Amino acid sequence: MEPHTVSESEPLRVLIAEGQGLVRAGFRLLLEAQGDMVVTADAATADDAVAAARATQPDVVLMDLDLPGVGGIEATSRILDAFPAGATHVVMLMTSRSDEAVFGALRAGATGLLLKDTEPDELVEAVGVVARGEALLAPDLATRLVADFVSRPERLRCTPDQLEELTAREREVVGLVASGLGNEEIAERLVITRATAKTHVSRALGKLQARDRAQLVVLAYEAGLVRPGRLAPAAPERVAAPSPISRFGRYAPRGRVQRAALHPLAA
Fold it and tell me: How much is the pTM?
């Protein structure tokens, strides 16, 4: 299927897949009030969500984890399988903080994970973040990811041969991605261009057969390329603005956000 091509002058196209009608209506009002987003369709069941996504080719899908039918995780997998990589992004809206929910959503390809009690402005922010191809997790879900991953018996399929294919620089870049850094921040940290950083990320994704940056983070844990530890040192002269949500971040005192305590391992 040919993806819908988005220009900067076009509004973001959003599909709402939510089992409760009142919630769907609220999401629609919130998003369309932004002026730069349009709801292409809404769906009350998993089958309807898959059909609507194929028909309207949204940039972002707001997906209810507990969507009636086969559920939000399976619906996410089916939707993303219908499009080229990066054409459509999914924000999973969750009531559960369980390992099965968090890791299931990541494995299905969701690049945004939010709890359903998220504030409206945070939800709007999340839509914009994932539409840019970045991954975003609610802080307490990210903390759970960091704390629990190393003890999980279930793993993604990352073989020693795949790891051997990574260059030393690509291993370093994967560790920085897992620390929550975007391409621009990686470029600053390694003193390379943003295009070069993006190339390293793309090559690592291909070699590890990861769908996106979220799965790359999970694979980095699995492979032992990163471990819970001290905060990654900040890039020189770069000050991050406080935000209620951080990519792979965690809440600090008084609701501010810090990066997850991840420390890339040496190659």
Answer: 0.59
pLDDT tens-digit profile of 180-223?
777 888 999 999 998 999 899 989 988 888 877 777 877 777 77
Which candidate, 121, 129, 31, 110, places its Cα nearest to that of 65? Answer: 110
Q: Are strands 257-259 and 262-264 parallel, antiparallel or unpaired?
A: unpaired
Q: Dump pLDDT digits (tens) for 146-179.
A: 566 545 545 555 666 777 889 999 999 988 887 7
Confidence of residue 134 (pLDDT cuts 50, 70, 90): confident
Domains of the chain (ranges, CATH numbers) = 12-133 (3.40.50.2300), 148-264 (1.10.10.10)
Determine how many CB atoms are found less than 10 A away from the CB of residue 229.
Answer: 13
